[in-house]
Amino acid sequence: MSSEREYPGGGGRSDADRADPLTAYRPSAGSGQALPLTAREAQTYSGESLLVRYINFVKLPHTLFALPFALLGVLAAPRLEQVTPRDVFLVVLAFSAARWAAMGFNRIADRAFDARNPRTLNRELPRGSLSLTQAWVSVGVAATLFVLAAAMLNPLCLMLSPVALAWILLYSVSKRFTWWPHLWLGVSLAIAPVGGYLAVTGQWSEPAWMLLAITLGVATWVAGFDIFYALPDVGFDRAEGLRSAVVRLGESRAIFLAKLLHGITIPALATFGYAAGFGVWYYVGLIVAAGILVYEHHLVRPGDLSRLDAAFFTMNGVMSVTVFGFALIDRILQ
Question: Which is more confident, 266 or 19?
Answer without folding.
Answer: 266
